[in-house]
Amino acid sequence: MNRRDLEMHLQDLFEGCLAGEDFHSLQEELRANPQARAAYREYLHLHHALRFRSKGVDMLRVVPMDKVVERGQRRMMKQAGLAAAALIIVTATVMALVLSIPDKPTLTFTSTPGTDLIVSHNISGEEIPDGQALEPGSRLVMTHGAVELEFASGVRGIVRGPADITLLREDLLDLAQGTVWFHVPRNAVGFQVRTPRLVLTDLGTKFGIISKPGALDEVHVFSGKVEILNSKGLKKQEVLEEGQARKAGPAGRWSNIPLRRDHFLTKLPSSVKTTISLNDSVSFTTSPENEMIKETTYTFSSGAELSGFDLGKSDKLVATFSHENASIAEVTYGGVRMAPAVRSNTPGLRQTAIYYLDSPGSAGDLVVSFEGVPNGVGGSLLALSNTALGAPVATTAAAGRSVQVTSPDKNAFLVVSHVSNDHLPNASPTARDPMIPLFGGPVGSSAGGSGYMKVGLRGKVIATFSSSGGDPVTVGAVFAPHP
Questions:
Q1: Which end of the chain is more exposed for a tag (fewer CB within 10 A), N or C?
Q2: Rg (the chain; Cα; Å)
Q3: Which alpha helices (DSSP H) does 33-173 contain, by range?
Q4: Does pTM surpass 0.70?
Q5: Domain 107-263 carries which CATH code?
Q6: In whole angstroms, what is the distance from residue 355 CA to residue 475 CA?
Q7: How far apart are CA 371 and CA 249, in angstroms?
Q8: Which of 196, 179, 184 lies closest to 261, judged by CA?
Q9: Per-domain residue ranges for the chain?
Q10: What does the pLDDT look like over 102-146, one tens digit per residue?
């Protein structure tokens, strides 16, 4: 029996109209053919399901057409909602990425290694820029070194220290002090720089400005044009072109000066040589008017002779001593022993010496102890910063009013101490130029003095004192900057 005849017989059977020979044929087929029996079971299951459905029981899980349409509509709305939600998520993600990209700072800067600077902001909270950046109200103070400025507008500048700049607007910079070279592109024309004596408006150019305390401000134009206004007196205004330079006169006029390219940096140097700075100094003596006070130990108190002496951020302490008779056994500052840098080695009653102490910390008493009994002692105390650790790089001692020392570094610091047999009341040996005097006064029945100078060039340096006493002795020590 073929498949079609089998299905026709099964339909007639469940409808109750199969009889006779057809009924017997179906029975024989079901006994002999497993496939026929499987078809019979399918029809039987369908027949029972239809009967139960007529009684309200859905065994076939047949979904009516209206339900199919309703489900389709709900599925479409759900898919539309999911698509809208996905669109919202994508949009929010994109917006978050956009918002998370920080705004470009108004001004960023890069400093040369060895530069000493401080940055402060006249803003607070989240508005404070991150890293090496300035926003309007930010101030950069540089004591030493060089900085490259990069404005968001494209303006570029190289600043040489010491300098003090404040960003007032994205197109206005206040230069209280410093030597600055600027390059202003065409799209940033109108950029202004203000100093204590002038206001400069750029007209698309390269120019330099020098502003120093106690000196007249200068403008040097290397290309293009600038407009300058003297903010003092007559307030003269002028337009400068390439190759011209002016100095702001005290009456509000301008005076011609030579163009000096060598005064300015046009690119950031790879390194800046460190220069030693004198943070504070003080002098002391036990023998006013050549009075002899014989004690084996002298203490100079930070509350008396050293009043007001402040180490601040100093990293080296240097002391000079001039005394009559005896020899120094030990020197301490704040209870910490100072090391001898150089001492006089000439025979006689008068002696002079230089001592030093690294990382002195807070202020304390200076105590000098002697072997023997001196007639008196005087000297000076210096607080230095940017100095290399350890002993001086060069020392000298001579039986005379001057010493010669060879400095290995043009940025070094020379300290000199002197003593002579001067019995005049209030005798005061004075350090001659280019030295700056520190101490000058009696040390028992003799007189002592000290001074310092910054070494401008490598090589031989001569320091001299103008004393009138006999048997002079002078020593010197050269301290190098830190690497």
A1: C
A2: 47
A3: 34-53, 65-100
A4: no
A5: 2.60.120.1440
A6: 11
A7: 61
A8: 179
A9: 3-53, 107-263, 277-479
A10: 567 889 999 988 788 889 887 655 566 667 889 898 999 988 789
